[in-house]
Write a structure and sequence with these properties.
disordered N terminus
Length: 106
């Protein structure tokens, strides 16, 4: 059986979110020794905090994929729904990106 439309939408959301996380990770790893002016307004944002955020979001993606893989088990449906909602909430911070789809908004 092929993927459902919902599966394809989830895969598209995950691919989009991964690309944004990759960008954040690159920026955090290339952080200058002195704080960049655009981050200066928010002193609690550091390369380490950005990398921790990226790692947490990647764990969320992995949990969502795992629940999606096990979707045939009836008990996984509520877990998958909750993970999808969480993924949409976290991805919404990139809603100004040209590749963000309005369908992903809650």
């Amino acid at each position: 059986k092929g993927p459902s439309v919902a599966d394809e939408e989830l895969e598209a959301l995950i691919a989009f979110f991964r690309e944004r996380l990759d960008e954040l990770e690159r920026e955090a790893n290339d952080w200058p020794d002195e704080m960049d002016i655009r981050w200066h307004r928010i002193p609690s944002i550091t390369p380490d905090s950005v990398l921790r955020d990226v790692a947490a979001d990647r764990a969320l993606i992995a949990a969502c994929e795992s629940a999606s893989d096990d979707y045939d088990k009836a008990m996984q449906a509520p877990a998958l729904y909750g993970l999808e909602v969480a993924l949409k909430i976290r991805a919404a911070r990139f809603d100004d990106d040209a590749d963000y789809k309005e369908d992903w908004k809650l």
